[in-house]
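Box 3.1 A note on notation
Throughout this textbook, protein chains are presented in two layers. The first layer is the amino acid sequence; the second is a token string describing backbone geometry. Keep the layers aligned when reading.
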Amino acid sequence: MRISSGWIQQLGVNSMLNQQSLVSQTQMQLSTGLRVLTPADDPGGAVGAQIMTESLKTTQQYQTNLTTAQGRLQLEDSALDSVDTLLQRIKEVAVRGLNDTLTASDRQALGDQTQQYLDEITGLTNTKNANGEYIFGGYRTDTPPYVFDDQRTPPSYVYQGGQQQRSLRIGDLRNIEDGDTGFRVFEDVPSTAGKLGIANVDGKQSLLNTVYTLAQALKGDLTGTHGTLTGTANLAGGKDYSAGPASFNLAVDGGTAETITIPAQNYPSAQALADAINTQISAGPLRDKVAAQVSNGAIQFASAQIGPNASVTVSQGTPGFLADAGLADPSTGTGSTTEFHATASAALADIDTGLERVLDVRASIGARLNALDEQDSLQSKFIIDTQANLSKVQDLDYAEAISRFSQQQTVLQASMTAFSQVQKLSLFNYL
């Protein structure tokens, strides 16, 4: 077979280029530490590595969420442990205060001591985490859950947080609550005190206001309760009356009912609705006799007067408002006088119920922390196993690669030397 000089040269060049490409690829593998540089190197391995990499990123994000939830729950448990201790001390003060041998001055001192404990509890309910978020605020993490409102009737502690618990995704099909709302821990607590407790509504107490009731009773500042009516509907999201005004009849302390007309407009919150009602009240004969306010998202009416003659009655003027607010037609709330022993005993019983709620929540926190530990262990093992499998698929065997690189360099040098020698095979060199 006859081979031209040009063909021989082309074969030599192709051989050197192929070998240079192999050397270059091995060099890239050595510099990156990866066996699979492009999908063309190993199509099946590249797809598997991509799937495992995405799974790792997702699981590592779950682990980050899990760590966040653990931190929040541990902080909440610590705060509730302190609340538990303070409530126990308040119980001791209440029992001492019920002793008939004490003078009014002695009880005044105990009331001041109770108020100090209450201030500490209020601070704990407004605990922030490292990110500056209020841990008992639910989704409203930027608002202090509890404030004391001295403009309310009667002055009392107001919960400003959300009522829904936050949750975090810690697994493909698993969420967990990373805290508890102040509403669940301190507000929605059963009560047997009835009218004797400040801010009690429908058999439920506000634990901070129960302690406040006790402090006021010990100091002799609580002699009666206001006539109050609280709706059962949560209007925190507001009410739209832009289609037309709504009205209802309102009577205070057994007096003549007055019609209150709520102007036609969209009210974005319960407070906006209460403000509109108060504007109408202030313009008529009920001025300074009754006030509309918000209690945990519901509309509440409270008479200015206290005692058994204090009352608030609502009835339907036009269809709409009472049903929207969750008030019966008609419905009346009356006040009462308070006697120290009855009030303090009722507060003591409610504090016991509040302590049970705190312990229940702490037990729930413990269960969630255990669940987080188990999930952490499970996912940590998954991450280690996946990283090992990913390494097998895409990582480079350095010993084999270095040996191959040395061999390819030798072959490249040999091909270059051979090409150089072939270049000299010309008849003209012998003429």
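The CA atoms of residues 65 and 133 lie 16 Å apart. The chain has a mean pLDDT of 91.
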